Amino acid sequence: MDVSNWRGLTLALGLALPAMGCTSGGGGDGGGGLTIVSCSLGCSSSNGTGGQFSCGITDVYLNQEIRVTFSQPLDLSSVSNNSFRMVEIRTGKTPPGTFRLDGVDPNVLIYRPQLTFDSTGNPIFGLTRDETYRLTIPGTAQGDLGPFIRSKTGEVLQTRLLCTLLASRGVFDAKPGRPRHTMTVTRVQTYDANNKPETFKEVAAAGANQVHRTSEIKLVFDDVMNPGTLVNPVQGTSNTITVKVDPDGDPNDPADQIAIDGEFSITLDQVNLKTTVLFRPTVGYPSSGSDLAKPRRIVVELSSTIADLGDNVLVTPGTTVFTPERIDFPIVEVDEQFLNTAFEDAVHGGSPWGNGQLTGGLGGGSGALGDLVIPAGETIVLRTDSEDFSAAIFSDPAVFNVGNVLDPPVPFQVDGGIFEFARLLIEAGGRLRFEGPNPARLYVRGECIVQGTIDVSGAAGLAHDATSFAGGIAGSPGPGGGRGGDGGARPDGENWSPLLDNVSDPGPVDPTDPAQYALVNGQDGVGIPFPDATSPVLVAAGFGGLAWPQPGALAAPNDLIHFPADRDDSLTSFPYSREVLCSINAPGGPGSGGAYARSGFGGSSYFIGVTIPPRVPIEAGGDSALLALDDVARRLSPDSGHLRGGSGGGGGGAHLLQTRVNGLLLNDCTKTGSGPLEVVEFVPYSGASGGSAGGALQAQAGRRLVLNGEINASGGDGGSTQANSLASPGGGGSGGAVLLQSPSVVVQSVPNRINVAGGIGGIGFNTNTAANGRALGGRAGPGLVRIEKQAPALVPEIEGTKVTPNEAALVSTYGPGASIRDVLSTGVWTGVGEGPSGLSGAQSCWFSERDLVDPDNPLEPIQNFFKLEFEEDGVDELGWDMSVQLQGFADLQSYRGENDLTGPGGQSLQDLFGSDLGAAPVLVRFQGAKAIGTLSQPCNVKLTGLESPIIPGSLTGWVRHPRLLQTFHADPGLAPNIFRFMVIWDSNDPNYATLQAIDRIQIRVRPD
Questions:
Q1: Tens-place pLDDT, residues 649-666
Q2: Measured distance CA(491)–CA(468) in Å, rounded
Q3: DSSP reduced 3-state for 372
Q4: Domain, as residue range, for 310
């Protein structure tokens, strides 16, 4: 019997065909030598004894077995691909095959094309469909070179076999008709005195009961099956056979059935024409349960697509149901004593865990929003005024899982810009953007890993078409930052001067109205609140450029910056171009840059054709000195009001560049050849906007903060002119503020990890050469960075190489007195017991069957349960409790039972202190889920996706008592079989100092 049992290995599969009358045509034994007698391909000799044999059958199956009968018993060691040659004519390749002697007749050699399988288990037969093969067995009589097949006595083969074969007949089905199967399992017959299985019996699976918790399921098919329709031998899986547990024992309702983790293997017996499939459960079957009326059942379903090699489908598909053995589990007490960190989920917590205690941490927030994971290529935008977490962007549980949210509010929105996550991961290429009026305050209870980007930058001013009536509109600043100033509006000249009697140019601004005329000036940027974020006084912003001309009185002909009031007043408006084109070459003023850590700069502007100063004053940049930035302000403390975004740049002023009169060229432009002096071309232009400032960001992590990506708090560039336009440019917005706090802060040692650079000024007049006219908006100042960690503090000169601008850039801009310490300060993070910074927390790993042990045998984990039934609070036993250290008490105290603080019959500490988030010194929550298989990494369990062991929909919310977990879902199939806990500390609470530490947490649970 040739039986091959494999998983992920190749298998020779050639199937014997009916006898085909193969004879030698009188060859006999070749006169005593070794000769061919016959073959299964209808072999015959060309000229009798010693002649060459050929094949009467030339069309063969892909899996065809070839049998050759010789005159003497063979030496199998002489048979190889060289002495028995099967070659694909088109490619010259030898297909894989195997050789063996017939078990009954040693004169018969059997060749089988080898059967292999692809990665999904589909069979690849030795011969290829419709390919032509040459079969050659060399013989000495024809002068072949050999090597030759030999007999047991050493005789070499005399007769040659030479055939040309075409693999045209598909796959040979050795057993016609549709296959059937049987299914068996192992039943427990008796138990020993300790209720352990003692004797077993293999029985038919259908209707079996007391099936052993680790029994294999054996399926035997009465044919050689197509393994591609049964099992993927490489992965040990099956797409056509499912094994599930039915929680309520009603197999007619498959909606609640859950797959059982396990591995499939397959064995093909080509001699006896059988196929065997085994299913081995990874951790066994769950107990049939405590409900004797509705025991859990195991349902095995076979697909109707299962077929043999001849594509004949299974006669007996469908479901088979059996009942696993019932196991009586004891009540188990999960007892976490914090002796080490084996059960600490460090990714989701930062409170000190170990050495027999769990205590409050330095900060990191409550983590109430759960995890936020931003994958590559995705952007999440959070608003700092009010963010709706029920929006569609949060619908992907792999990004944000609402099931992890602690006590979610209704409606589910976060106001004020304070976001408390348990874990934050921004993958490379992912982006987290904050927008809104308030600084962004990002708290992470555990780990904050930034490989992508956190963006609180200010928007640049857009390229502006100066012929637009309205000036350029500034973009949005970063959160809590100042907006850039809008550009000056295009002036309307109809009511401006009698010189324009014949000019029609309606616009939005009437220059005769001083209130409206202010609109043609570039607007100032929005400054920074001083002395703190609560102040209405805004300082340090960039200024808007003045429009040209400015309004002047009729009696002031010497006022050189007003529009001509009458025909005799034109000299005041055209003194610098009267010998050229009699046109106005004075542009509006550019906007200046905003300030923060350092001051911003004014812009620059040149007339067309000359390099004399502009007709309107150039505004200076924002003044950093107005912020009085001392060491306290540079700490950027949100609680002190010093976490503030930067200041915006000013917008560019409007102007009348290229407006022209009919004066005499190369003469006094106040005279004409004939007729009155008139404005013959009125050309008004609006200005570009200023850049908006970078915002403010606080990022605090309770465990560690790793920045391998970028935090961008840069200011936006000032607006420039569009192509072929003549807008005055805007000034840049200043950089914002970045505060990083964690016990461990690691910023990757490459430049530009933290960007607080101010924006550059825009470019006006669409040219870069002073000879033809140019204007530049003012550059803005940089923002501030503060990094705090546990002692020792980081060194600014080292961390400054990762900041933009670095010290070299600051010196280049501000001179040798500038230093990286103008922008960056560092300190020791000691934690602040105020607001969200006063909250910290810890989270356990998932407790599963590996952590539940039999009290009578602590070395043996309890397995084969379907769900966990958590104990209710009783008179003598609590469902869960904590042992805590109280200030002023030597003995440990019960948190939920009687304690020395309130005395016998008094309130529990939980009732005394409270258990609501934001109103208790400590609170504990529990979460459950149903997992398939064993948790290989209980501290790092994916909750969603193909790699997750968690059954979709089974994750519960965080509840106050573990008893609530088992009834969280109405579907009993989703009842948890794993759970974890969370502890949140709040140092804002007046009882925080009283409750000093937790020494152990105990949870009573009965597996079922």
A1: 999 998 877 777 777 766
A2: 10
A3: strand
A4: 181-322
